[in-house]
Design goal:
Blueprint (H helix, E strand, L loop, with lengths): L8 H7 L45 H15 L10 H15 L8 H28 L6 H16 L6 H7 L3 H9 L14 H129 L7 H24 L1
Helix pairs in contact: 1-2, 2-3, 2-6, 4-5
């Protein structure tokens, strides 16, 4: 290709960089909106070896940027420049596109021309809105604010969002883009001063009247257009105000919902704290009950031990009493006889008292 020299590779390199080439969203400096190549004639023939196909997949942003780069490279050809015939120009654009594309999508010259027409039409309309915003010269608005305002105005008028921001960033500061806007503007006619004749005077008067009438109609049309634009801007501002009001109420509702959730969470935490306190008290009560049962069990065991001990003592006493009662005191010496007789008497009296108590 003729445009593969190092200078033309500038626009190809743009594609490998971030599409946000410049954080400043201006570029028009208050000039009138640009209109370029309003109608692009189709080339008479496709290049040899190019297969015509039915409508393919939608163009991707990368394909759009490659098409813009191809148009800039081929349009900026230093030898032929913009005097190239449209068929030759688009053949070069097609070759450039085919050389650098990274997708498998098949594109014909006709599809590239149609896509470029869509891009430039939408971009021109967006530039017009941006110029209107800059013309208002509102204080306190940054370039980003103007850019966003232009997108809102574009969407309000076109009923769709501006979809070629990635292309606008590549085109907005390029001399070729700006030059095409002024290329076809006809120069003003110089005022001639021939010698006047009655016929020429009448013709001049009629011409002046016609010009005055045309100027008047033009001024009226311009005023009507300005009034229409003002009404559209007022409508846009009203829509923005409504959108802001809606956003305010949405934020208020979100805050109320957040406060409600926060309060519910607080109540849930308090309920959980109370539940844990109750559980703690229940555990403490259970521990006290278990301790009390253990103490009662010890008391019962001690009572049982004492009862068994008493029974054992009672049994031993009975055995001792029985031995004493079975003794033959008659063979004992006098003193022993008297002692054991007294013991036998006490034993008998104790048993008698026990029977009386029962």
């Amino acid at each position: 290709m003729d445009s593969q020299d190092s200078g033309h590779m500038y626009f190809t390199n743009l594609l490998s960089q971030d599409p946000q080439l410049d954080p400043t969203y201006g570029g028009q400096s208050g000039n009138s909106p640009m209109t370029i190549d309003a109608s692009l004639p189709l080339p008479p023939n496709e290049p040899n070896g190019v297969r015509k196909s039915v409508r393919g997949a939608n163009f991707t942003p990368e394909e759009d940027k490659l098409l813009v780069s191809a148009w800039l490279n081929c349009s900026l050809d230093a030898v032929q420049g913009t005097d190239q015939k449209h068929s030759q120009l688009w053949e070069k654009i097609f070759e450039y596109f085919q050389q650098y594309k990274e997708t498998t999508n098949e594109r014909t010259i006709k599809s590239l021309i149609h896509r470029w027409s869509v891009i430039q039409k939408a971009t021109n309309k967006f530039c017009a809105k941006l110029a209107q915003v800059e013309g208002l010269n509102q204080s306190g608005m940054t370039e980003q604010d103007k850019f966003e305002k232009a997108k809102i105005m574009y969407q309000s008028l076109e009923k769709c969002s501006f979809q070629f921001e990635h292309c606008w960033h590549l085109l907005k500061d390029q001399p070729k883009w700006i030059w095409r806007a002024t290329k076809d503007v006809p120069p003003r006619r110089k005022t001639m001063s021939p010698s006047l004749t009655p016929t020429s005077t009448r013709c001049s008067a009629a011409t002046e009247d016609s010009k005055a009438e045309k100027g008047k109609r033009k001024a009226q049309g311009k005023q009507a257009e300005e009034n229409l634009q003002l009404r559209k801007m007022k409508y846009t501002l009203l829509e923005e105000s409504r959108a802001q009001e809606k956003e305010f109420y949405c934020l208020k509702a979100e805050k109320m919902e957040y406060d409600k959730e926060k309060e519910e969470k607080k109540l849930r935490l308090e309920d959980e704290r109370l539940r844990l306190e109750v559980e703690k008290m229940r555990i403490e009560a259970e521990k006290m009950r278990i301790e009390a049962e253990k103490e009662q069990s010890k008391i019962r065991q001690e009572d049982e031990r004492l009862r068994l001990e008493a029974e054992k003592v009672e049994l031993a006493k009975k055995e001792s009493d029985q031995r004493i009662m079975m003794m033959d005191v008659s063979v004992m010496p006098e003193m022993q006889r008297i002692y054991f007789q007294q013991l036998q008497t006490e034993i008998m009296m104790g048993r008698s008292n026990a029977r009386d108590l029962d």
